[in-house]
Amino acid sequence: MINENKPLYIQIKEYILQRIKDGTYKPEEVIPTERALCSELDVSRQTVRRAIQDLVYEGYLYRVQGAGTYVFDKKLNESKKSNNIGVILNRTADELESKLLSGIESYIEKHGYTLTFMNSNEDYRKEAENIQKLKNNGVAGIIIMPSENQQDSSAISDLKDENYPFVLVDRKIKNCETDAVVSDNIDGAFQATKHLIDLGHQKIVFIKNRYTITSSIQDRITGYKKALKEYGFEDDEILFLSYNENEKNNDQIYDEIYEYITKNKITGIVALNDYIGLLIVKMARKKNLKIPKDFSIVGFDNNEVVKHIEVPLTTIAQFPEKIGYHAAELLIQKINNKNSNDLSSRMVHQIYYPTKLIIRSSTQNI
Question: If residue 185 lies in a helix (H) or strand (E), which one and from where to where?
Answer without folding.
Answer: helix 185-198
